[in-house]
Amino acid sequence: MKVLILGTGSWGTALAKVLDDNGHEAVLYGISRSQIDDINHNHRNSAFFDTPLPETLRAVDSLDDARDADIILVAVPSHACEDVLKQVMPYIEKPALFITVAKGFHPVWHKRLSVVLAETIPEGKRRGIVSLIGPSHAEEVIKGLITAINAVSEDEEAAKEVQRLFSNRYFRVYTNTDVIGSEIGVAVKNIMAIACGITAGIGQGDNARAALMTRGLAEMTRFGMALGGRKETFLGLDGVGDLIVTCTSMHSRNYTAGLQVGRERGTEKFLKENTRTVEGIMACKIVREEAQRLGVDMPITEEIYQVFFCGKDPAESIHSLMSRELKAE
Question: Which of 76, 224, 314, 328 is the most exposed place for a label (fewest CB within 10 A)?
């Protein structure tokens, strides 16, 4: 199989190595000349990893490889998905299976990413859309450390194709047909990871993190079910699984963002200096608006919104959560 990966970031690079390990032709498309040259000549992507890459892996700055690609994997931030897909459409000469690995929403229309793909890619140019999502850090996948995630699609055969494509001795892929629940779970957990980082940053401990993760799971489940997701999905890899890995690891951009904001008692320095994509910030704004529209109570999301968009002191936000009206769990 020939797979074109759109994006030379950490996750796209790690998945390209998985595909290469499985004997597939993986081609990374990017716009950074230094990253492309590093991959092709030094067999590394030093912007993200020290781990050597296979010599058979190549990177390009042209979309010509889309013409004969069997599969196109979209590994760019959620806000860029629509624009990148529009750029690749003129190059597609045969229907391809599209895979999205981003975790978030359309920045304007608030749509889930599989919906964005379905509305952007003409039916004649695609033979399926699958979300490959779940608890995973690129820093571990690139080293061949054990990982389990989901291939999610209403098209079970397309999901199974992706499952077969990626699965190996260290990378296990399950299938799931609850597209709504899965995509909501992996997006909302980023908000909870920011909250956990803030809590650690202001000096709180494991007890506080456990409370936030548990109540965050309840919040995520309420929101996802209101949109049509299945309750059991939030107890799986795309719910509690992704919540655990994102709320507990220094590899998590969302957790470390919250950690910095908590330590500095505000967002000013972080927002001025940050150069990495932190999906939970925009997801927080979108989820808050949708939750208000649906009448879903999301107190943790509300407080993270207050910190990032209204300038509330992070410590005061945690105090606000602790001071809410007492109730049964």
Answer: 328
